Amino acid sequence: MKKILIIEDDKFLRELIARKLEKEGYETPQAVDGEEGFKKVVSEKPDLVLLDLILPGIDGFELLSKIKNDDQLSRIPVIILSNLGQREDVDKGLSLGAIDYLIKAHFTPAEIIEKVKKVL
Amino acid sequence: MNKVQRTASPLAKRNAGVKEIKRLRNTLRVRDLELAELKKKHAIDLQELDKVAKMLVQRDLERSQITEKREDELKQLKESRAALLNILEDAQAARKFVQEEKEKISAIIANLSDGLLLFDAQDRLSMVNPQTEKIFAVKEQDLIGKTIPQLAAFPATRPVVILVKNEGEKIFRKEIKLREKMTLEVTTVPLTIGKNQLWTLVVLHDVTREKLIEEMKTEFVSLSAHQLRTPLSAIKWTLRLLLDGELGNITQEQRGFLEKTYQSNERMIALINDLLNVTRIEEGRYLSRRVLIELEQILQIVVNSYKEESKRTNIGFKLEVSKEPLPKVLVDLEKIQVAMQNLLDNAFRYTRAGGQVTVSLKSDKKEVELSVKDSGVGIPKDQQEKVFSKFFRAANAVRIEAEGSGLGLFIAKNIVESHGGRIWFESEEGKGSTFYFTLPVAG
Q1: Is the pTM of this model over 0.90?
Q2: What is the domain class of B290-440 according to CATH?
């Protein structure tokens, strides 16, 4: 079973996306902030990370660069799933090593899973 | 005589008498002569006297004339002196005025909040004001007299000088980041007298604060959009799950309501995107990453995404592209798509079922022209001039479709114009509208 780590501070959004992923047969460990997120990336060794950007404490960009600068973790694909959507944010996310950048409000859960499947 | 007469004879007496007469006569003659002589002499003396007197009179006259002349001269001299003093006073006043003017100008230059640099015809720096010293954090004496290449060697002045060197006199409000927390807006002004350009004035306007505010505003807008989108995402995702039947079966009636709710939510999301676009247009840093492409490629993608809409609304939809290959244009893909979508959105939104929307693409050597023609409600004549204004919505449009941000055409106009293109329309109320835009051919 493929493991997808969801790092998202909004409880309801986290539940909605987890529900859909579980229905598709994924295991979904979850984290609510950057710090917990990083710990779970290390401990869970997920196959993919769905990463929100605005997070309490360590934000998504910082967490992303931490993952990408760690030899043990840098190969884990990260899809940014955020509602930040300005060109600068997208460019920054992609240049830090994210494989895709999705604006939550522009995608349905089904479309997000399409993207996940494509990467895996 | 009496004695003689008494003692002598008559003859003797007579002889003596004749003798006497003779003598007397002689004497008389002598006397006469003497008298004449005397008279003559006297006359000469008189003449002499007269001459002297006349001379004296003449002298006196001359003297008085001379005195008079002297007085005249003195008077004139006094007048000249007074005049000279006046002139001197005027000159002093003029000098004082010039001095005051000079001080005034110096004070203005010294106290101007903008930094000024004045280069002479040989590109040598001939003047800076204190603000310039502050901006560069370099003392005046280290700058004055230096040439452009010399100043380009200083790290402090390098960015500005390089800009001036490369752009010459054509700089208008060019922004450069001098260092952390110092952003300048540079403008150059050629100073000419007659036809000769004597100096180049470089004006440095400190916009650090404005930049900071702009950054804060961008951050604020970006965060607000994020905050607004989060609950909308939750609504969107939930509605989708409901509509996809993943949360249990729903009736047809429920589906209808949920569809409408979903569409409203989508509009809300689109509105936030519009607002973000507008904010960025106003910041003047809208376009990024331009690519060279045939406009038809982008248009095809956009047109395909409206085929569904065409079926759903029962509005005919046609794409007409000229047969000759179209020249490439240099565009920001995402933005040009937005501009096309905004025109097509309007065309479909304000055309009734059974109507027609036609998109055409053609070009000449200079421009590629795209048009979107609809057979919709048209724009009332009296409202046509406001069509591209922010938040404008025509009265008849509001009646048909209550929602709509009034930002679509404003955004489209800004996108097209920031690509160096033009946008316009033709419209007749009740018959339809055609919107056109052009983009300059790359190269």
Answers
A1: no
A2: alpha beta
Q: Tally DSSP H helices, then E strands, for chain A.
A: 5, 5
CA nearest to A95, candidates A70, A68, A55: A68
Domain edges within chain B: 23-67, 113-208, 211-283, 290-440
Contact B357, B374 (CB under 8 A): yes
CA B405 to chain centre: 38
Any A CB within 8 A of B233 CB = yes
Show pLDDT as tens, one digit a residue, over chain B (443 residues): 455 555 567 788 888 888 888 888 888 888 888 888 888 888 888 888 889 999 999 998 998 999 899 999 999 999 999 999 999 999 999 999 999 999 998 899 889 999 999 988 888 999 999 999 998 888 988 889 998 888 888 888 888 888 888 776 677 788 888 888 888 999 988 888 887 778 888 999 999 888 888 878 877 877 788 788 889 999 999 999 999 988 889 999 999 999 999 988 998 898 888 887 777 776 655 666 788 888 898 899 899 888 888 998 899 999 999 888 888 999 988 889 889 999 999 999 889 899 999 999 998 888 999 999 999 989 888 888 888 887 788 877 777 766 677 888 988 998 898 888 999 999 998 899 999 999 999 87
Q: Which helix (H) or strand (E) holds B352?
A: none
Q: Could you report the predicted ipTM of this complex, rounded to two decimals?
A: 0.89
CATH number of B113-208: 3.30.450.20
CATH code for A4-119? 3.40.50.2300
The answer, for A1 touching chain B at a CB cutoff of 8 Å, is: no
| Contact residues, chain B, for A83 at CB < 8 Å | 225-227, 229-230, 233
Do A89 and B230 make contact, defined as CB atoms within 8 angstroms? no
Distance from CA of A69 to the nearest CA of B (A): 26
What is the rounded CA–CA span in Å between residue B236 and residue B14?
194
Domain boundary assignment for chain A: 4-119
